[in-house]
Amino acid sequence: MDAAALPMLDPAALEAANQKLEGADAETTIAWAAETFGRGLVMSSSFGAHSAVMLHLVHRVVPELPIIFLDTGYLFPETYRFADELQRRFRLNLKVYAPTMTAARQEALYGRSWEQGDEGVQEYLQRNKVEPLQRALRELGATAWLAGLRADQTEHRASLRRVTLQGTRVKVHPILDWSHADVEAYLDQWDLPYHPLYEEGYRSIGDVHSTLPTTPDMDPRDGRILGKKRECGIHLLSAEQNQSLKSSGL
Question: Is 232 a catalytic residue?
Answer without folding.
Answer: yes
